[in-house]
Design brief:
349 residues; nine-stranded mixed beta sheet
Length: 349
């Protein structure tokens, strides 16, 4: 059963004033890495369609988040002291104690002394879900600016980025955006947020859950990183079509909410999650105008799935490598464990 938290709406005066990202220079060649695995796994890895994967060997997620946040603030022309809310999203470990707050650490390093810090774990759609929530918070209070940062590093961890999941290979990096309900700085053209629509299907939460809670042991740490095992159990019980059908329904609903006429002549790009190419071809490309032609797969195929950072990293990539005119539009589309999907329609200022 799919539920909708809120109807699609035009946030009052909300803009993405600036973006920033950190993507490590090192890239792992997919074919080379696949050859290091047993034949069955190697075949599955190659079938994902990625060419290279971003891999960070030195910086931890907090360090990458700080770089991305500083770049986003500079692009927006926003001072850290003017940030009212900081949210950090991730799907993997941060490298510190369990009770440590990455958002508070980032707040301290930036000097954003008046911000409210939040660390959010809600799967790979977390950054866009936070954008959705921030839209309401900024338009309904005296708070004007938010900094949302996604950051993950899978290198040298118990999580095998190549085999832990089905049809996906995970990359390292961080992506940040400054949201403002005020007037963006003149030097930052930015993007108006025209519409946001989120869809939730909690029946799919079992895709990432063990059958029963388990006691805390050292052995369990390894099991927590085996995403495929939980998915295999769930799909065996509920059928392999359940996730695909739910995804197509959710993406279709988002398309209707963002593009009521089915298309938009001003639409230039759709930034999908950086899932493996077969998953995108089956579940996402058919539902939006232009399919693969308007996607950022040419970028995603070089970095991998960046946890919750795919969409803002993609938007930042477009900012640096493409030219847009006032009125051009982009759709950001996120999906994550839970299961949730969020679509955001942006217009160039």
């Amino acid at each position: 059963m799919t539920t909708t938290p809120a109807p699609a709406r035009p946030p009052a005066g909300l803009s993405i004033a600036g973006t920033g990202s950190y993507l490590p220079e090192q890239r792992l060649d997919l074919n080379t890495e696949a050859a290091r695995h047993p034949d069955a796994d190697a075949e599955r890895i190659r079938a994902t369609g990625y060419r290279t994967i971003a891999a960070e060997q030195t910086l931890y997620p907090g360090d990458m988040a700080l770089v991305a946040a500083q770049r986003a603030l500079a692009a927006a022309g926003t001072k850290p002291q003017d940030i009212d809310l900081i949210a950090v999203t991730a799907i993997h470990r941060h490298g510190h104690q369990r009770l440590w707050s990455p958002a508070s650490w980032l707040q301290s390093r930036l000097g954003a002394t008046r911000a409210l810090p939040f660390t959010v774990s809600q799967g790979c759609n977390a950054q866009l879900l936070v954008l959705d929530l921030a839209a309401g918070l900024l338009s309904g209070s005296g708070r004007r600016n938010a900094l949302i940062v996604a950051t993950d590093r899978f290198a040298a961890s118990g999580f095998d980025r190549f085999t832990a999941d089905y049809g996906i290979v995970y990359g390292d990096g961080a992506a940040a955006a400054v949201l403002t309900a005020g007037t963006p700085a003149p030097q930052a053209p930015g993007w108006r947020v025209l519409t946001i629509h989120s869809v939730s299907d909690p029946e799919l939460e079992g895709l990432h859950r063990l059958d029963e809670p388990a006691p805390e042991t050292r052995a369990l740490f390894g099991a927590e990183h085996d995403v495929r095992a939980a998915k295999k159990r769930y799909l065996a019980a509920h059928g392999t079509d359940s996730l695909r059908e739910a995804t197509r329904r959710a993406v279709r609903e988002i398309r209707r909410a963002l593009l009521p006429s089915g298309t938009d002549p001003a639409l230039r790009r759709v930034v999908y999650p950086n899932l493996g190419l077969p998953l995108l071809q089956e579940n996402y490309f058919p539902e939006f105008p232009g399919g693969a032609g308007t996607s950022l797969w040419d970028f995603g195929a070089t970095v991998g799935h960046l946890g919750s950072g795919d969409q803002i990293a993609g938007l930042d990539h477009l900012e640096r490598h493409h030219t847009f005119a006032a009125g051009d539009r982009i759709v950001l589309l996120g999906a994550g464990a839970g299961f949730t999907w969020t679509g955001v329609l942006l217009e160039r200022r």
